[in-house]
Amino acid sequence: MRIEKSVLINTTPDKVWKVFTNPLITRKLGGIYKTDWNPGSFFGWQNLSGTQITYGRLLDYRPGEYLKHELFTGKDMQELSSVISYTTMFKHDHTILHATEELLEELTDAEFGDAVSGWEAALQELKKVAESPSDLKIK
User: Fold this and answer.
1) How far apart are CA 17 and CA 58, in angstroms?
2) Tens digits of residue pLDDT in 108-122
3) Domain annotation covers residue 102
4) Residue 130 belongs to a domain
5) Which of 32, 41, 61, 95 is least surrounded, with the fewest CB atoms within 10 Å of its CB?
6) CA–CA gap between residue 94 and residue 12 (Å, rounded)
7) What is the DSSP letter of 93?
């Protein structure tokens, strides 16, 4: 199963990437990525109360262009559940962010629908933060 979603964001790829990499900005999305941004390293999402929500490994990272990571079921990281990638394309003063999740576990139709809705909501929130002038002034 595969989910593919894109969103048009009225800013540059570098500014979109700040939403992924700058903890002061990612907090506006409800947490921070825990990683050192080196391929092969741990990659996960931690909420604002410090609870680790997702567990994974960074596969590829090219700032402003491409991010790919694995997502595991549980903190023991024994069962791979999906591979997620983000790609940016700059076109006519805006960025197209394309997200793909390759699901490796079977989902019911309802679970798949929830996952698709979650992606749509997450990308719209990322767009809102990336387009906010005050957030983009953060170095």
Assistant:
1) 15
2) 999 999 999 999 999
3) yes
4) yes
5) 41
6) 6
7) T
